[in-house]
TrEMBL record:
Belongs to the mTERF family. The gene is MTERF5_2. The keyword Transit peptide applies. Transmembrane segments: none annotated. This is Transcription termination factor mterf5, chloroplastic. It comes from Nicotiana attenuata. InterPro entries: MTERF (IPR003690), MTERF_sf (IPR038538). It comes from the Eukaryota. Keywords: Transcription, Transcription regulation, Transcription termination, Transit peptide.
Amino acid sequence: MFGIGNNGATRQLYCIRLKLFCSTTTTANAEPNLLSEFLVNSLGFSTEKAISASSKVTCLKPRNNHKPELVVNYFKQIGLDNAQIKLLVSPAPRLLFADVDKTLKPKIKVFQELGFSGPHLVKVLSRSGAFLRTGLNTGIRPSIEYLRKLLGTDDSVAKAIKRTPGLLSYPLQRVMSPNISFLQNLGCSTLDIQKLILRNPRIFVQKTEWLEDIVQRVEKDFCIRRDSRMFFYGVEMLSSLSKSNLEMKLGIFRSFGWSDSDIITMVQRLPLCLTTSEVKLRNILKFYVEELGYETSYIASHPTLLMFSFEKRVLPRNKILKLLKEKQLIKKVPCFYTVIKCSESEFLENYVMPLRDEMPENCNLIDLSIGSRISVSSNVMANRSL
């Protein structure tokens, strides 16, 4: 950004401007921070955020190949736009002073070889923690190789990294091995451990004491045995919820009259139902209890009812089932659970097509080739006679 002259005056001026560039504070009379100006003018930062970001950068030794323009140009060359670059730079503005050829290209090439590009590449880079401080050959490559040995394929490695981009900020062999050994000692198979890593790698970079506590709670609080196929889902569920968040969700069930026995039955059958958002839980429980009249024991024994999309699946299918009943278009009316759990193609063939044949102008089937989102003009249909 600056040229270094041969005379002492020029060199002194450069040092003064560089100090301003790397300053962590600003005053009313000081020359504007040059990094802040760059962030505002080149990447669209607000002045406030630019000052905040630039304050994270300590003074760097000036080198011709350590320039923000070079870094930004490189990111654009690999397909990132200003918004994506901004996402990268905000938490780690020091990134702008990385050596493109020696630091960035070799590291990013590793991810590209795993199939990362565009948004996925940005996500990995922006959320991988101390990426620049992680050595390529001492940290990144050994961690990827360790994941390869655990998971078997590069596709699986990429999937795990997508799930938890910060994974490569850890010395994986050192932090994951104790947790894997702990689960193996419980009798967990290699395949089960691989599946859990792919679903939630974050579990394996926690302290082993934390994982031990999770396992104890799965067994004690929800009575899920280690040999149950739901055991790992119970571990995954509890690992994703804080204790306060878990209590809040359990409180929602209790507000609808659920007993602890009902809750345990539900969790034993499908632990991940507790990862459903609080808003959705309230809406869907209210619908099943008040609209369909379901008993808590029935929902507890059919917990998949809680996992379907309320707006895109539950409500539309209920409307269509009601119309089929009203117009007597099917001889044997199934229970709603049968309707809600069937596949999209089965639902279309068995329930939508009869309705469409009778009232084609009122049944709008959208994008059947990609899974169909069904929109029914139920008011018009209900008022139309056959």
